[in-house]
Amino acid sequence: MPGYLDQYGAGEEQRNRIIIRTVVSTLTIVILGTLFWYLLRNHHQEGVVKNFLTAVRKGDYQGAYRAWGCSGPGACSGYTYDSFLSDWGPAAKSTSQPALDFKPDPSALGIIDSESCNNGVLLTVEVNQARTEKLWVDRKSDAINYAPYPICPHKNPWSIMLHRTVGKLRKPLLK
After folding, report:
1. Is-contact 146 136, C-beta < 8 A?
2. Are residues 102 and 123 both part of a single domain?
3. Which of 1, 4, 14, 51 has the highest CB neighbour number within 10 Å of its CB?
4. pTM of the model
């Protein structure tokens, strides 16, 4: 004849397994979701720059100028089409370093790095073997411009460390 307390705690083990599985599953989903968010949060702005680089690669400089954000009249009053061609065209020359090959190389042209920064995205673009450019894409207007600063100001050390470590996972997504 079974005793009164023989079944005491029998359902407790099953309940503990359910709780542990729920906690582990929730943590896994949160960690993977955060990782995917981090890897894909600049995807739209990277696409804008990829469209620009594709137009430069094809030699469609009017299309590249429009992708830069200069589609309407007076949209880029400080950056004329002639200035754009002297920076990104086939006869691009550097005024500060005349010996440097300044024109874009279609085989090397691509995004190297992408970093979220305030209200925009700071992208590093390899133009040729000797030239890299820092471009800024505004999140609201998707306008491309030269970066106002070489690195994002006011970033805390944790986000810098995160970008330098986990940010390397984003490299295959940039190509």
Report:
1. yes
2. yes
3. 51
4. 0.78
The answer to the question of residue 98 being in a domain is: yes
Residue 23 placed within a domain = yes
Kindly state whether residues 55 and 114 are assigned to the same domain: yes
1 belongs to a structural domain: no
pLDDT tens, the chain, 175 aa long: 567 777 777 778 889 999 999 999 999 999 999 988 888 888 999 999 999 999 998 989 889 998 888 876 667 778 888 888 888 888 776 655 555 667 788 888 889 888 888 889 999 998 888 888 899 999 898 889 898 888 888 888 888 888 888 777 777 777 6
Q: How far apart are CA 171 and CA 7, in angstroms?
A: 57
* Same-domain pairing of 24 and 61: no
Total domains in the fold of the chain:
2
Cα three-residue angle 130-84-118, rounded to 5 degrees: 80
- Give dist(CA 150, CA 171) in Å, integer: 19
CA pair distance 107, 53, nearest whole angstrom: 11
Burial class (CB in 10 A: 0-12, 13-18, 19+), 123: buried
